[in-house]
Amino acid sequence: MELTADALVADLRAAADPAAHPNRHYAGDGEVLGVRMGTLFDIAKCYTALPLDEVHRLLDEPGYEPRLAAFCVLDFAVRRPRAADDEREARYRLYLDRHDRIDTWDMVDRAAPRVVGAFLRDRSRAPLFELARSDDPLRRRTAMTAPLAYTRPPHPAGIADLLRLAELLADDADPVVRKPVGIALRHAGGADPAAVRAFLDRLGDRLPAPVRRAAAEKLPRAAGP
Question: What pLDDT digit, counting tens, does each position of 134-151 carry?
Fold first, then answer.
C-alpha cells in the first residue's frame, strides 16, 4: 500500500457519496467530498504510518475530509503504545504549526486530547494558556479540549489546569468554545469530583447555567438529611 497523501485522498474520493453523506455540520469554506465519518476513520487508520511530510501535504488540501483525515492520522499515530517520545513531539508540533488549517470543531476534537493534551501531560501546560488567549476560537477550543487527556486516567495537576482554563473560557463569546468548557468539566467531575465541586462552589453564578449543569452531571449527589 502506498503511504502518500495522494493515495489517501484517492481512497476518500472513491468512498464519497455526497448525496448520502453531505456532512452538513461542516461550516467551513472547503469542498465537501461526502464521506461517511466511520468510513473516513477507517481509511485514516490504514494510513497511521503516513510520513509527516505527507501529513503536511494532506493539510494543504482545500477539502474538508482530507484535512480531517490528517488529524485522524495524527491521533491514530500517537495512540500506538510503542510510539516514541520524539514521534509524539513531532506530531504535537505539527498540530500547533498547522492550526491554521483547522476550520471546524471536529478537527480539534479528533486530535487535541491525545496529540496535544497527552504530550503535555508531564510537561508545562503553558502552551494551553497561550492558546486560550488566542483571537481564534478554534485555538481556544484546542486549549479547552486538550485537557480531556488528564481525566482518564486522572492527573491531579492536569485537572487543576483544566479548571483554570475553564474559568478563563467559561463565558467565552463563541459557542464553539463555551460548549467544550462544559464537556471538560463533566469529564473532570467523573475523575476528581471534589475538585470540581470546589470549583463550582467558588465560582457559583459567575458560571453560565449550561456550564454549571454540564459540570454537575457526573458529580455524586449530595446525601439527604
Answer: 999 999 999 999 999 999
151 φ/ψ angles, rounded to the nearest 5 degrees: -95, -20
Would the pLDDT of 222 be above 70?
no
Query: From residue 37, how far is each of 65, 69, 164 by CA, in Å?
Result: 9, 10, 33
pTM higher than 0.85? yes
Distance, C-alpha 112 to centroid of its chain: 3
Asked whether the beta carbons of 23 and 34 are under 8 A apart, the reply is: yes
| Bridge partners, residue 151, by sequence | 154
Radius of gyration of the CA atoms of the chain, in A: 18
DSSP β-bridge partners for residue 154: 151
Contacts of 55 (CB under 8 A, 6+ apart): 5, 70, 73, 74, 94
Task: Round to whole Å and give the CA distance between 116 and 88.
Answer: 9
What's the chain's average pLDDT? Answer: 95
